[in-house]
Amino acid sequence: MDDRQQSRKQLEIINILAGNFTGLYYVNLKDRTSEVISISDTIKGDTGKLVAQSIDLKEAMDLFINNLVHVDDREELLKYAEYDAVYNLLRNVKEHRILFRRNFNGIYRHTEMLLAKSESVNEEPVNVAIGFEDVEDKYRERKEQDLQKAVVSELANDFEYVCYVSLTAESNEDVAKEYRSDEALERHIPEWKEEKRFTKKLDLLMDRIGYVQDVENFRALTRRNVIVGHLEKEHVYFVNARAVVDGEVEYHQVKFVADRDSEGNLQGFIFGIHSVDEETRRELDFREGVEKLVEIQTEELKQKNHELTKVNENVVTLLGSIVESRDTDSGMHIQRVKRYTYILANRVMKDHPEYGLTPYRVNMITYVSVLHDIGKVKIPDAILLKPGRLTEEEFEVMKTHCDEGCKILEMLLGSWGEDYLKTSTEICRYHHEKWDGNGYPYGLKGDGIPISAQIVSVADCFDALTTKRVYKEAYDPNEAFDMILEGKCGAFSNKLLGSLVRCRAEFCKGVHAIDDFYIDTTSEDFKSMAFDGLKILLVDDDDLTREINKEILEAEGAVVTEATNGAEAIVIVEDSEWFDAILMDSSMPVMDGIEAIRRIRSMIPNKRPNLLIPIIALTSEISENMIIECKDAGANDCISKPLIISELARSLISAMKENTTIVGDQLNETIRIANTDALTQVKNITAYTDKVAELDRKITESSNNELAIVMCDINDLKLENDTYGHDVGDMYIKNCCKIICSVFSHSPVYRIGGDEFVVVLTDIDYKNRDMLMAQMKGMVAAAMKIDSSENGKASFASGMAVYDPYRDKTVGDVVREADMQMYRNKREFEKA
Predict the structure, then answer these.
(1) How far apart are CA 205 and CA 222, in angstroms?
(2) Torsional class of 284: left (φ above 0), alpha (ψ -120 to 50), beta (otherwise)
């Protein structure tokens, strides 16, 4: 090629590749030759020399790509390193651009490769110019614009502070690029503006203005790996926190929004902070209160159950004895049932491996069998202790002890392993079920009854027959055995009866035996067993009396801590993890026992679960006034000094029963609060979720279900809030809820969102559903004519769907149909 041709070719290429190109190549596709026109200084060196000397396109491109291109981008570029690939690429277009990262003196910068036709025949390329241009600055500018658009679209104007944090390898991973700042943050945190590190900004937030109770939780939820973990799975991640600004507690929410590349890989995130509105604030307050109450209860129960586990079967025996203390005729019933359970379970394990029993499972079933009748603490004495057969109504009440017992077990055994909780509740709930379905409370049949409950049911029945009760004499063991085998006591599995026959001698021997399986609660053995390992705080100002009582307790195996007055006792309680019982002298100098009991009971619950500790007041003289005064202060009982172990054992058993009832009531109230919407006092989304699960189970079990769902959606709630404020909006919500509840007075109503309600129609409401829907629409039409929300204005769309076994497989199918009907109604409102 002469100089004139070379000059013309260079001019041609320069015209085609306008811009700051760092490398120019010329490719003749007809002759399959390539030529290097120019090489940037950044390519020179060994690689540059080899590229310049190369006459083959593939060889030159391979050298360039494998030595200078980022490893993640090489595969894409290598697609265009051959003549055929370039030809096919430019057959129908004039040019093609490819973005990649190139090494510039050790730093990777975004570079664009341009392939363009310089000569063509019938639109097909003959000669092609290839150039490489550094576009790092343009790339960053475009990225910045994209981020700004993302910020605008993702974070509304109510975010006071907005920044972007990159997660890419070539960026400084901890730099926060600000898009919007906040004067309040800069005023209260002087270092805020200058600090560029994102993690340090989060630390400053909590150190300077964070609400102390939220600091630990906020830091745990905003660790880098936690944020990234959430954003890799979801687009948005929220964290709520409180701040103390000018002495006032303010609610704030931080929002993390994922920034992904075209392939969905997380590149970074947008971070924003904004104040929470009044409605959300109230919701957070309510939720926090419920969570705190649940947390307190959970911690109390976990702590108590830790102690239950520590003293192993001794404390379970005390729990079982709660029933014994009320039901005098049952004697050692629960301990004998435990013995029979162990014998029969071992036999079934050997005879029937299909049940999956193991030595571990046998011991576990035996261990928790003593709690099968714990629910009887909820049965009135008039029924439990009635000397004769129960009426039909009384028997219905008695049946409830199965489910009531499970509630107590779920509460008290929460910190046990899942197997223990599952097995104990199975036994408690189903030990009165029968093989033929004629048992209670659910009428289960066959192996639908858990094997643990089947075994305990046989043991329970045998002991009931062979012991004297207020309504009958005891049967001879062999006669009782035959009654069970002949089906006179209800139907049992033939497999279990076969195993029972092999245990006949051991069962009959157990009727009269007192051995390691059970212990008489009136015996000295039981007294020692009951106190073995218990941690007791003994408070008495008289050294001699305290020393005598301490020796008595330690002789029974208790671990005793001493205090000489009420004030000292309070300090010890505050600094200690837990006591199984407190024995408090009622009259002492410095601080008497009654005042000390009152203060212990009133300690902050989340510091110490003191409501569960049995406190027994000790006094030299028992009087009615003294007993009343001690119990008013919070004592469980009042007994005389010096200690009599049998009397103290009875007091502790009674205290455990009393505290179990207290915890049960508290748990019921916690559950009620957790399932109630704070604004309207109807059931909330949590209760609705549980209800759906229950209904789904019923649909799975049977297609014969009387079920209808009503969906309601409030009209223009946002407009009401924006125009008149959230207080008026809340009144608007209440008005709508009032109409729904008044119409469907026999059915549960759920508020499942800010403006959405669901009604699950039952009983009489289900039968009258069409009439009630018409009545509700009439009431809405009347309420819409009222001038203000304060006077009862309300407007909402509604739709109903009835369960159809041929259409609906789940409750969700019914809800979707009701939702469609509701939106048809909403469109009618919009047209009107």
Answers:
(1) 12
(2) alpha
Q: How far is CA 63 from CA 41, 77, 105, in A?
A: 16, 12, 17
pLDDT tens string 702-729: 778 889 999 999 998 888 888 888 888 8
Helices and strands counted in the chain (H then E): 34, 19
According to DSSP, residue 390 is labeled P
Report which of residues 351 and 421 the model is more confident about: 351
Mean of pLDDT values over 785-802: 88
Residues forming a β-bridge with 145: none
Mean pLDDT of 520-546: 66
Q: Rounded to 5 degrees, what are φ and ψ at 332?
A: -100, 35
Residue 522 is given by DSSP the state T
Q: Which amino acid is residue 83, in one-letter code? A: Y
Q: Which residue would you say has higher pLDDT here, 81 or 454?
A: 454
CA dist 421 and 429 (Å) reads 12
Q: Are 765 and 670 in contact (CB under 8 A)?
A: no
Closest CA relative to residue 800, chosen from 721, 719, 711 = 711
Q: Say which residue the tokens 């407007």 belong to.
A: 795
pLDDT range class, residue 796, cuts 50, 70, 90 = very high
Cα angle 123-128-133, degrees, rounded to a multiple of 5:
125
Count of other CB atoms within 10 angstroms of residue 535: 18
* Tens-place pLDDT, residues 173-192: 678 888 777 787 888 888 88
**How far from the centroid of its chain's Cα atoms is residue 391's Cα?**
43
The answer to whether 87 and 115 have CB atoms below 8 angstroms apart is no
Structure tokens at 405: 């017992």
Cα torsion at 641, 643, 646, 647 (round to 10°)? 30
Parallel/antiparallel/unpaired status of strands 124-134 and 21-28: antiparallel
Amino acid at 262: S
Closest CA to 181 of 195, 199, 168: 195
pLDDT tier at 760, thresholds 50, 70, 90? very high
The secondary element (H helix, E strand) that includes residue 132 is: strand 124-134
Provide the pLDDT for residue 125.
82
Instruction: Give residues with Cβ within 8 angstroms of 150, minimum separation 6.
Output: 257, 259, 270
- Helix segments in 400-490, DSSP class H: 401-412, 418-430, 451-466, 477-485
pLDDT at 660: 57
pTM reported for the whole predicted model: 0.33
Tokens read off for 354 = 């299909």
Give residue-wise pLDDT tens across range 475-503: 888 888 888 888 888 889 888 988 888 88
Residue type (1 letter), 540: D
Q: What angle do CA 694, 697, 698 make, to 5 degrees?
A: 90
Give the CA distances from residue 529 to residues 331, 444, 536, 628, 634, in Å, rounded to whole numbers and listed in that order.
18, 38, 15, 31, 27
pLDDT number for residue 135: 79
Tokens 């039968």 identify what position?
Answer: 767
Helix (H) or strand (E) holding 294: helix 278-310
In total, the chain counts a number of residues equal to: 832
Q: Residues 6 or more apart from 436 whose CB is under 8 A from it?
A: 445, 490, 491
